[in-house]
Amino acid sequence: MDFDGRFLAWVALSALIIATPGPDTALIIRNALAGGPRASTMSALGVAVGILAWAAAATLGVGVLLERSSTAFTILKLAGAAYLFYLGARSLLSKSREDASPARSGSTLGDHSAWGQGLMSNLLNPKTGAFFVTVMPQFTLPGDPAIQLVLMVAVFEVMLLVWLVAYGHVVSRLGRTGLGSRVRTFMTKVTGVVLIGLGARLAFERR
Q: Does residue 99 lie within any of the structural domains?
């Protein structure tokens, strides 16, 4: 394929969407503080798998169903909001030890759990599906080779992983510095509030 203006515009838009804080970013912060860089990386991988699933669903027409059916969209939206509420509540109710940190006491967040949280956070966000159904087709034209769509999704995935993995490592490192356990606990609580707020916004947000 030719790397024309459409492809470059897609890369620019993807970078903007990925860097904009949202449920996935809040989850990475939460798990970086709770489980360290490994947990946040596994969550990022879960988010990436969710993106692949949404891209495939959009290609197969499932995303179109969500876009056209208000009932299906609302059900998925409320499920996503409930999941964000759940994660936020867990952060707010979690008890920390004054001298504990992921680096010293060991992560209580397993790889499978962290990966699953990233996957579910992404899959239960209908806005992600709507993005691939309504926005991505605007950067393609009839007759474009299939490899163009594959490359567009691949570029999005690579940019997403690099951003989320790096973000998680930075947050985890900050959580292990001399800021202390009290500041780390405060950041965890704030992230819990943010997750609940994002859940509320998702629940009451219209298309």
A: yes
